[in-house]
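Researcher: Quick test of sequence recovery. Tokens follow.
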């Protein structure tokens, strides 16, 4: 625990904010001073419920409007889990108020929106980052070391990913992710963002040259002006004949795997977004050998599991705690790391291209 603490506020009371309430407490260099909702009662109820299970020494103050929260002088950084349709306005207002901004994903309706947000943060010299937790897991540096060792994978040729859950009819009927006003990208924004980011991370943030995508299914809640993607697939084409594919869905049961294949072997990550419950995170490296000896045909796996000590959630070394710890360090330093914003913008650009291709029946879109 450090004596210098980054003072956080939560702008909006979405469900994911409950997990990050605890992540702020576990960070060690952060504390939560305020929570805002559209009504004071809702903010107070959120605080009371979270404080009952994961208490801060001093309970955060409830704010009955977002403006009240931004005007507070006991807030250094804002965690913003508002719907995508509302994010641009409040990210820019938070930046102009001198607050560092951690924003949920997908970050904007378009890359142009993200560029405006980043410009506002640069103008006010405040840190910007999106909330992709796995970017802060100790698993990624280990994966990079394996990818770079020259023997485990060799030259990367193919990346494949799936992130899905089956929300069922109640989800489509009532969730904000089935509203084109609030979350116009549907499953592409909610789930596809993670798969696109993983592909970009694997490729050292090289953008694909072109993409082709398909809207496999669409739906919308009763008050949605238009349907949103509920099942989506895409192909990303990089330089040097490297390709990636992803599938995301609100209609297929829980899967969140990633595979990286190369000229010498492949890596499989069974839980790249939300680590399976436990005190370590893993991935599997396989260098199969097909051996023929006379009439004997054998496929030998020759694999190994790499395990990294790290709790899946609700722990100081879990990836969400690392996210808030890293962000708090940057905010307290006074020297924002602009690379985080550039990574966000690249992810948004690829997502925009995939969305445009899907609306045009899979027509190739060039980046």
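Model:
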């Amino acid at each position: 625990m450090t004596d210098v603490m980054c003072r956080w506020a939560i702008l909006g009371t979405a469900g994911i904010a409950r997990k990050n309430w605890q992540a702020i407490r576990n960070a060690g260099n952060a504390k939560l001073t305020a929570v805002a909702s559209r009504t004071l009662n809702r903010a107070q109820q959120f605080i009371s419920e979270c404080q009952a299970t994961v208490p801060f020494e001093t309970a955060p103050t409830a704010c009955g409007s977002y403006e009240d929260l931004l005007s507070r002088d006991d807030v250094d950084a804002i965690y913003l889990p508002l719907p995508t349709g509302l994010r641009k306005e409040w990210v820019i207002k938070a930046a102009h108020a001198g607050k560092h901004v951690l924003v949920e994903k997908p970050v904007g309706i378009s890359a142009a929106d993200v560029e405006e947000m980043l410009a506002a943060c640069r103008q006010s010299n405040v840190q910007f980052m999106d909330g992709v937790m796995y970017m802060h897991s100790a698993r990624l540096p280990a994966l990079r070391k394996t990818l770079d060792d020259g023997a485990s994978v060799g030259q990367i040729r193919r990346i494949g990913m799936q992130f899905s859950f089956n929300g069922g009819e109640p989800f489509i009927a009532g969730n904000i992710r089935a509203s084109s006003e609030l979350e116009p990208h549907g499953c592409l924004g909610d789930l596809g963002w993670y798969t696109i980011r993983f592909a970009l991370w694997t490729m050292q943030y090289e953008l694909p040259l072109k993409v082709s995508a398909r809207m496999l299914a669409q739906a919308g809640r009763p008050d949605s002006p238009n349907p949103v993607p509920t099942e989506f697939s895409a192909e990303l084409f990089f330089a040097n004949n490297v390709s990636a594919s992803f599938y995301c869905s609100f209609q297929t049961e829980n899967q969140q795997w990633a595979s990286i294949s190369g000229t010498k072997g492949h890596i499989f990550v069974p839980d790249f977004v939300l680590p399976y419950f436990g005190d370590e995170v893993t991935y599997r490296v396989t260098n199969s050998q097909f051996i023929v000896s006379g009439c004997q045909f054998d496929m030998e796996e020759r694999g190994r599991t790499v395990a990294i000590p790290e709790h899946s959630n609700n722990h100081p070394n879990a990836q969400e705690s690392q996210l808030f710890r890293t962000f708090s360090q940057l905010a307290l330093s006074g020297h924002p790391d602009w690379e985080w914003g550039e990574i966000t913008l690249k992810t948004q650009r690829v997502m925009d291209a995939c969305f445009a291709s899907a609306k045009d029946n899979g027509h190739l879109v060039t980046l």
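The longest strand covers residues 251-262.
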